Amino acid sequence: xxxxxxxxxxxxxxxxxxxxxxxxxxxxxxxxxxxxxxxxxxxxxxxxxxxxxxxxxxxxxxxxxxxxxxxxxxxxxxxxxxxxxxxxxxxxxxxxxxxxxxxxxxxxxxxxxxxxxxxxxxxxxxxxxxxxxxxxxxxxxxxxxxxxxxxxxxxxxxxxxxxxxxxxxxxxxxxxxxxxxxxxxxxxxxxxxxxxxxxxxxxxxxxxxxxxxxxxxxxxxxxxxxxxxxxxxxxxxxxxxxxxxxxxxxxx
Length: 252
What we know:
The protein is of the alpha/beta class. The chain has a single domain, classed as Purple Acid Phosphatase, chain A, domain 2. Helices cover 35% and strands 21% of the residues. It is built from seven helices and eleven strands. The strands form two sheets. It has a six-stranded mixed β-sheet with strand order 4-3-2-1-10-11, with helices on one face. A five-stranded mixed β-sheet has the order 5-6-7-9-8, covered by helices on one side. α2 links the parallel β2 and β3. The two termini are 30 Å apart. The model is unreliable at 173-177 (pLDDT under 50).
C-alpha cells in the first residue's frame, strides 16, 4: 500500500471499554470517538490493535450491551471508504464474524506483516509473545479452543459477562504496577520477541499494544519497537505519514 500525500495511517489500541464503570467507560468512549472523527479527513487506514473492549463475546443471537458510539463511528469510517483493521486482544478475542459482516472490518488473531511505502511493519496485539508467561500462554490455548468457546456460550449472557468482568478486573489488579513503568530492555518481553524475529527477517517497525505503556525503542538495523500505550491513562497512538512514524498523544 502506498500512503497518498497528505494522508496518514493511524495505530491505536487498548481502549478497554466497559471498565471500571459505565460512566467512566462512556466518557472514554466519547473521547475516542472525537479522536476518530478528527482523523477522518486524513486517514488512509486505521489499525485498532486489540482490547477495544474489556470483554467481548459474540453469542449467537446476542451482541453485548453498550458501545453503540464506537461501533457506529467504525461503521461510518468504513462506509466512507477508510479501511479499518482489527487485531483481537486478550480481552476481546472471542470474535465470531460480527465485525466482518456488520462493519466490513477484517479481524486478525495473530501478528501480521504489512508494507507501506516500502517500509515493513509487523503488527499485533502482543499478548503471549516472547519469553515467559507460560501460564497465560496455556490459558490462551484454552480460550482459543472452539469447544471451550461453545461451552462458554451456553451460559446466560448475564452470568458469562459477570464472570468475564470479574476475571478481567483481577488480572488488571495483579499487573497494574508492572504496566506503569518500563522494565528495562532485558525484561521487556516484547523487545525480546522483536529481537528474535529480527534474527530471521527484517522489519522497520514492530507495532504492538497490550503493554499499556507508550514505548518507542530502537532496535538493531534501524528497526523500532512501538508500543501504543492505552486510552485509559495516556490517550496515545502512532501515526505514519509515509515516511516517519511518531508516537503521539490526543489531548483535546
